[in-house]
Amino acid sequence: MRVCGLPQAWRGHGTWRILDTDFGCGQRFVALWQQWAHDPAAPRILHVAALATRLPQLSSLHDVLRAYPALADYTDELTRQWFGWLPGFHRLSLHGGRLHLTLCIGPPQQMLRQLQFAADTVLLGMGPPAGTPPAPDALCDIWGAKGLARLCRRGTRMALTGVRPSPPMIDMLVQTGFTEPQAHTADTGADTPQGEPAWSCEFQPRWQLNRTRSAAQPAPVAAGHCVVVGAGIAGAAVAEALARRGWKVTVLDAAPAPAAGASALPVGLLLPHVSRDDSARSQLSRAGARLTWQTVKRLCSAGTDFDNCGVAELAIDRVRRLPADWPPQGRSWSDDTLPPQVAQSLADAGAPTGQALWHAQGGWIRPQSLVEALLAHTGIHWQGDSQVHHISCVDRIWHLWAADGTPLAQAPHLVLANAGDAPRLVESAAEAVPGITGLAPLTGLRGQVSWALHHPLDAAAMPRFPVNGAGSVIAHVPHPSGTAWYAGATYENANAAPEGPAPAHAHNQAQMARLLPASQASLAPGFETGSVQCWQGTRWATGDRLPLAGRLHAGDQPGLWVSTAMGSRGLTYAVLCAELIAAQLGGEPAPLPHRLARLIAASRAR
Ligand SMILES: Cc1cc2nc3c(=O)[nH]c(=O)nc-3n(C[C@H](O)[C@H](O)[C@H](O)COP(=O)(O)OP(=O)(O)OC[C@H]3O[C@@H](n4cnc5c(N)ncnc54)[C@H](O)[C@@H]3O)c2cc1C
After folding, report:
1. Rounded to the nearest whole angstrom, what is the distance from the C-alpha of residue 370 to the centroid of ligand 1?
2. CB neighbour burial string for 581-598, b if at least 16 within 10 angstroms, e if fewer
3. Mean pLDDT score of the chain, rounded to an integer?
4. Which residues line ligand 1 (CB under 6 A)?
């Protein structure tokens, strides 16, 4: 890596962003990881976005990792995340969440177009191949060179490895703003095998970089102070994503304790969405599920706070089908063949399994435990009993006020993650700073869950994994007084007066009778004697049922960000939205291709 000035170049920076145009068998990435992990002056965050037409098998990756025993403590987390490589972007969070690897699987030029960041270093060329020959010279035409140039800032160093720059290639690089490649050998200090030269060049266009380019890629913001309003899963996830990057974060909430809104849900499902055309929603759900499981596994206790045990989805309320050309790697996410023990357990519960899916990457999570774990980061200051009434802005600093005029907090960056109240606070901010984009209106949907402690007899009649399809049933969840089951939930207009728990229990019981008839029969006495309890909360959703995440300010206006409208899938979306916001703020590669990030942009049309 000395060819491109590393490690000296990254020293003194908080974040370093590398674009690797060929992940190959992972050797280059692992070498970088080792160098970064053992450099005391290395940046806090290293981000590698790597293109690949296909990824190596886990066994070949293990061969590479074996050569780096100093990383042994961390390699388990890499191998645990090594699954489900469908085309598109996959974000892996490694080394305690400080090393981000964004794998972009697909035709290289298409993948380049979906990236939005300014690389500090570019590694161009072929890594050792991942079992099949890489796409031939996919980036060595003028469009490839332009695509690379778009992702460089002035001064980005590019190393050319495994490729000898031909005269036409040198021409294209120079035309697109790079200096003429210089050769380096081991004799001149390059870390290349003896006798094999490597080349490097720099992005130094002779012209001024235009304004449209900087509007699409605003300058990265250095870690500073940020206020987050709302301590549900959305706010806690943003706070932790920023704190991990070195930010000082103040989290305000109207309630005296975190997770007081919908995130007080006792237990919720996390599972990928499936559709015949593998819709954007399905792709977003997989990106979210991958990131949430990584976070939960890093911060929470397995078996107590979560169980990545898989989820069965039955075709009762709607039929969900896998895409016709669903490849084998997709089946490690969702499969239409049930594992034998799952099929048996569903049959014992009387479930209609005619058309069923098994989501191996599904499971249950306690949102409250996740929120507490996220807010435990030392960079986060929690401030309860702080209902934000309005917002003002003086000298580019946001000021947040209580209804009686008491100042609550101030900071140059503000993230609104206060669920259904976010549009009101955005209006207040827009009064203070004209030009701030308004937020799409949100609809409140009240939901009620029925739950009770297990009796030994009903526990035996219930599957050990969650079942979804007509509401959902989650059983065998640890509880301070034993284990509990949860069924629901209802969907009610939040503006209508609540009906009380009886109709909700009746609804949830009827749904369970369709989903797991035999299990429901064993729970019926509890409903009759009134020992079943009720939890209720409100989900906030947009018209298109996708979250609102990202920037609402333009250009050099004070930084206003939003993460809300999690709807019925906050456990899937909140961490994804948080990583997207942190990436946009810090100028890092996003966890999503640009076309998907646009679909959930907070500034999208109202
Ligand atoms: C019955 C039910 C079942 C659900 N099941 C699932 C499931 O199985 N899987 C799943 O993924 N999702 C599920 N959800 C959805 C999930 O719970 C939500 O999407 C998620 O919790 C929303 O998180 P949030 O942080 O956006 O909002 P919230 O958790 O509501 O947090 C918003 C916070 O903002 C605070 N706040 C609001 N206004 C202000 C203000 N002006 N000043 C200061 N603080 C303020 C509130 O006090 C609150 O703490 C379910 C929801 C319900 C209701």
Report:
1. 13
2. bbbbbbbbbbbbbeebbe
3. 91
4. 229-235, 252-255, 260-263, 265, 268-269, 367, 386-388, 417-419, 421, 447, 449, 489, 537-539, 564, 566-572
